[in-house]
Amino acid sequence: MSVSKKEIKKVTTNVLQEMKRGGQKISMLTAYDYTMAKIVDDAGIDVILVGDSASNVMAGHETTLPITLDQMIYHASSVVRAVNRALIVVDLPFGSYQGNSKEALNSSIKIMKESGAHAVKLEGGKEVKESIERILTAGIPVMGHLGLTPQSIYKFGTYNVRAIEEEEAKRLIDDAKLLENTGCFAIVLEKIPAKLAERVAKEIEIPVIGIGAGGGVDGQVLVFHDMVGLNNEFHPRFLRRYLNLYDEIKGAVGNYIKDVKSSDFPNSSEQY
Ligand code: KIV
User: Is the dihedral of CA 8, 14, 17, 21 positive or negative?
Assistant: First the structure.
């Protein structure tokens, strides 16, 4: 039996909060286009992140820095057209919020107005406090992102695990509390020690979603292309691959080429 749009209980920021309180884990994946977002939503994912990782996996850039606000809106609006249930969060891209809080508010309003998404995500702690406060004044839910923050890759110099040293770990805990007190509805913790992530998840009340942050947090997020093995060049320890689509698709394309070259395709039942 098919379920009509009206019968579906949509995931909201309140639902995520209830899930944390009830000890129910939150599932989150990235998506950047209509077709993939439809599959991910139909499968029952709780949160879809239109991540600025689109800069890497969709556009082939080395970092997340080049993607623009308009490009993020293009990806987000394609996702919005596909989704019935999941909460859709969109990354504020590099350069669209760091300048000042007014710019952060304007960028967030543009995303919400032009894409129809439900929330924005931005990277950083106390340095983005004012921006978060200003975005919240417009009624736009904000997700934080701490630990490895890829928009700062040129400051870090590497994609290695963050907050191993006590001083950085302490700063991260302070920032997580600050993001909660400022009004973020959830936080992503990327590539930090599992024990530290678990401690943060216990010390704050909003959901903590991990990527490379162990199992002691309130939910997990992965980049869709990595999870289904569309990308065969990225093998971090935290990644669990559920498919090997790179090889499967390459094999299928190879078979198609062979069939075209040998005139096996199309056959008599594949034509008019
Ligand atoms: O852009 C992205 O995909 C992300 C996730 C890695 C959390 O920010």
Answer: negative
What lies within 8 Å, CB to CB, of 199 at 6+ separation is 173
H-run or E-run covering 48: strand 47-50
What is the structure's pLDDT at 232?
A: 85
Of residues 124, 96, 119, 115, the one with CA closest to residue 47: 119
Q: Residue 96: how many CB atoms within 10 A of its CB?
A: 22
Structure tokens given for 78: 């394609």
Q: Which amino acid is at 11?
A: V
Q: Which of 114, 130, 168, 190 is catalytic?
A: 190
Q: What are phi and psi of 134, to 5 degrees?
A: -70, -40
Q: Is 190 a catalytic residue?
A: yes
Q: pTM of the entire structure?
A: 0.96
